[in-house]
Design a protein that fits this description.
Number of strands of chain A: 14
CATH class of chain B: Alpha Beta
Number of helices of chain B: 6
Helix content of chain B: 25-40%
Largest sheet of chain B: 7 strands, mixed
Distance between the termini of chain A: 50 Å
CATH superfamily of the largest domain in chain A: Thiamin diphosphate (ThDP)-binding fold, Pyr/PP domains
Number of helices of chain A: 15
CATH architecture of the largest domain in chain A: 3-Layer(aba) Sandwich
Strand content of chain B: 25-35%
Radius of gyration of chain B: 15 Å
Largest sheet of chain A: 7 strands, mixed
Strand order of the largest sheet of chain B: 2-3-1-4-5-6-7
Structural class of chain B: alpha/beta
Oligomer: heterodimer
Helix content of chain A: 40-55%
Distance between the termini of chain B: 26 Å
CATH architecture of chain B: 3-Layer(aba) Sandwich
Strand content of chain A: 15-25%
CATH superfamily of chain B: Pyruvate-ferredoxin oxidoreductase, PFOR, domain III
Strand order of the largest sheet of chain A: 3-2-4-5-7-6-12
Shape of chain A: globular
Shape of chain B: globular
Chain lengths: 361, 180
Amino acid sequence: MAEYKLMKGNEVIAEAAIRCGCDAYFGYPITPQSEILETLTLRQPWLETGMVVLQAESEVAAINMVYGGAACGKKVMTSSSSPGISLKQEGITYLAGAELPCLVVNVVRGGPGLGTIQPAQSDYFQAVKGGGHGDYKLIVLAPASVQEMNDFVDLGFELSFKYRNPAMILSDGVIGQMMEKVKLSPVKPRWTDEEVIKLNGSWATTGKTADRPRNVATSLELDSARQEQFNHKLQAKYKEIQEKEVRFEKIACDDAEYLFVAYGSSSRICQKAIDLAREKGIKVGLLRPITLFPYPTKAIQEMAEKVKGILTVEMSAGQMVEDVRLAVNGKVKVEHFGRFGGMIPSPNEVVKALEDLIIKG
Amino acid sequence: MTEEIIIAGFGGQGVLSMGKILAYSGIMQDQEVAWMPSYGPEMRGGTANVTVILSDNRISSPVLQEFDTVIILNQQSMDKFEKSVKPGGVLIYDPNGITRHPQRKDIKIYKVEAAEEATRMQSAKTFNMIVLGAFLKVKPIVKMENVIRGLEKSLPERHHHLIPLNKQAIDRGMEIVKEA
């Protein structure tokens, strides 16, 4: 049995990166995710696995280093928090446009602007609806525990290489700063050069032989007809992801008359709220999206057939609620409850919101 | 069993590390644990607090408004967290520097003169372990052997020679805690 450790979510991201055979991390410090770069620097994985860890001169530089590493077919990642992720958006859309796999971690803090260093979930729109320009999608994973911070690093890389698409871990200051017990993943060696060529040689710039055409990692296509064709290809890929990769968790839904929809740390708060509400005789369950793109639209539609009302709980002014309303399409009442700007809703507030907005309202 | 605790005091009093030792002790007896700190500028000299949850079941919210036990180590924290004790719950505090003592009648209140005792032990750094001892006397939720194993886990190896002193401080805390 692997030993349980007590670690912060951010530390676990760093440890999981080393263990899953990540080739390079490029980042720039910002609260509340600085422990990722700190832990990597302390661990010195370049001595152990050869993994490159580099503090870039800026977030913009870091994401473009990711572009370079990804173009070579390597497992590369970056991390930041909200304002830093905004700076990375140009690079992210270029990565999506060049169909390059990579992992981006956003430990969200309150905005807009420099905002606050306290936890928030107000980057949902940015993560799932674009953020950068053009018709692209990220694969977005939303961990709700320190264990999932570990698990989703490997999963994020796996999905991003499977679909040649950037993946994002959308966490927040609660999950990043919290310590919980965690079972770290077994160590996987980094890909050898031969493996990179075998696995990614069809598109990566690495390993050109005399008889292989040059691979070019670019998002530029000046012929509009061809660019439209390329967009069709991207859309087909996103459709496939939507069909195959939806992940979610249902808690206390079997007898539920009401439903919370919440992801990440808000879903943890909702689990406590479920206990409090059920003590009062209110039968409420929780649907927790684990993937935010692809979104568990069908699962929410199915629950809408069974419950009398749905409350989304987010640490934002109401972003994911739009996707819940699209899924429900007027079938039942959907309301939003949120605290934002770095404030965290309490379980009691969530129960009161359910009573006021859904049950009485 | 679920025990929801907040420890609140000044940055530098060892609030966060006390919470970490408690959380590790929980892991040593196969419990689920969560440790959620305040972070940011408040840690650099201002007030610091940490929520620790130990449970036999999956832990829901790491962010709470009410606690089974509230441990208070300065006046600002008294002002902020006296009201956060669940009715029937426990408040433990060090009266050193407290100008307004707790007022509530619906909770159990204990005093531990940890700062004074740490001075007497000529080791200011044992302060938080004296407080931990007081807590464990009032709420014996983790076995002493698991606390020692928790200490071993959370202290870097080069500090392991300090474990007997820490154990002594925990014992002192258990002896001197009293109902207020």
